[in-house]
Amino acid sequence: MTREYNSLQTFPLKTGSTFVRPVQSLPEHVKLSDLATDVMTDLSKVSMVSVRAKTSMEKANAKMIRYGVRMLLVLDDNDQVAGLLTATDVLGEKPMRFLQSMGGTHADIMVRDIMSTQRELEALKIENVCKAKVGEIVATLKKSNRQHALVVAEGADGKQSLCGLFSITQIARQLGAQVQSFESARTFAEIEAVIARG
Prior knowledge:
The chain has helices at 57-67, 87-91, 94-102, 111-114, 126-129, 134-144, 168-175, 184-197, and strands at residues 41-42, 50-52, 71-75, 81-86, 116-117, 123-125, 148-154, 160-167. Helix content is 33%, strand content 18%. With 198 residues, it is an alpha/beta fold. Strand 3 and strand 4 form a beta hairpin. The strands form two sheets. The protein has a four-stranded mixed sheet. It has a single domain, classed as Roll (CBS-domain). Helix 7 (168-175) runs parallel beside helix 8 (184-197).
């Protein structure tokens, strides 16, 4: 005997409807001795903003502004990580150097022309991050002179999946630094000032 199921009542979808986005709640204030995961953007809880390598630099910059981020994950046609594009890449010297060597205008510059490629990127392993402290992440970013660090999980087959992200600007804010600049040297100086104040 098969059971009969009643259908649910349906309603018109209203104009202006949005959708639920994942949200991660990080502590507002941390100390260097707190767990590194307290300052890590967990990509199982927050969607990473991405862009294709063939996108124009201007469109990518507009996307960063629209989403309020300073870094985009660059994907290839197979949705695999091709690289990273940061606001520093867009607003720094890279576009000018590209134009000097290749000619053209800003409108001609593509993400692939100025991004950091996958071969240039390094990542932290999630199992090490889970045991680390905020201070170790700050030291790692400072040593590499980078504003962001990627975190990967590695499967039994050896394939990596991007699962987390650190931003020195976010860490500085959580430590209580007044971040006015997006230059990494000044951000590290702000962090050191917070540490000195105790």
